[in-house]
């Protein structure tokens, strides 16, 4: 699994002009599910993101996680994070998980965030054409890949 994690003051996602998910202060997570990913990757990544210390404490040091600040998370599926651009100029998405597997793990990942103490987890609509509004805070953006922690 691959994730782009952005610290935000607020974020929302809409489909066909209708807001499907919105949060106030917290994290916007763009999530790509790679073919071969399992529940283990979802669990490890959710735990890492829930405890990622990228919010400032009283000394203005990034020392607090989203649960410490009572923050929220908006998770948006984004298969394009699985792009392979090694050959030519057109990305290949063959490493993306099949839609059924990706949707199941995307939903499981969101449940895992809640199980890790995140008070509110909002979502986009899987495989929809979405519009995402993000008010970055910092900006702070972290890229995570479970290949670093999980062996397949």
What does this structure look like?
The chain is of the alpha/beta class. The chain has a single domain (2-139), classed as D-tyrosyl-trna(Tyr) Deacylase, Chain: A. 20% of the residues lie in helices and 38% in strands. The protein is built from two helices and eight strands. It has helices at 39-51, 99-115, and strands spanning 2-15, 18-23, 26-32, 55-56, 62-64, 72-77, 120-123, 131-145. Strands 1, 2, 3, 6, 7 and 8 form a six-stranded mixed β-sheet that branches. A hairpin with a 2-residue loop joins strand 1 and strand 2 (18-23). Helix 1 packs parallel to helix 2 (99-115). The protein is globular, with a radius of gyration of 15 Å. The chain starts with a strand and ends in a 7-residue tail after the last strand. The mean pLDDT is 94.
Task: State the order of secondary-structure elements, H for helix, E for strand.
Answer: EEEHEEEHEE
Helix content: 10-25%
Number of strands: 8
- Estimate nothing, just give the exact number of structural domains: 1
List the defining traits of the structure above.
152 residues, D-tyrosyl-trna(Tyr) Deacylase, Chain: A, six-stranded mixed β-sheet, two-stranded antiparallel sheet, globular
């Amino acid at each position: 699994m691959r994730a782009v994690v952005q610290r935000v003051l607020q974020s929302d996602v809409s489909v066909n002009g209708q807001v499907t998910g919105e949060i106030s202060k917290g994290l916007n997570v763009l999530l790509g599910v790679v073919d071969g990913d399992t529940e283990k990757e979802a669990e490890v990544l959710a735990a890492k993101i829930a405890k990622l210390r990228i919010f400032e404490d009283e000394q203005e040091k990034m020392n607090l996680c989203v649960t410490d600040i009572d923050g929220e998370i908006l998770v948006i599926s984004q298969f394009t994070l699985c792009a392979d651009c090694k050959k030519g100029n057109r990305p290949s998405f063959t490493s993306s998980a099949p839609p059924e597997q990706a949707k199941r793990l995307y939903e499981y990942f969101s449940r895992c965030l809640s199980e890790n103490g995140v008070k509110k987890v909002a979502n986009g609509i899987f495989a929809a054409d979405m519009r995402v509004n993000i008010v970055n805070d910092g900006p702070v953006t972290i890229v995570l890949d479970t290949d670093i922690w999980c062996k397949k």
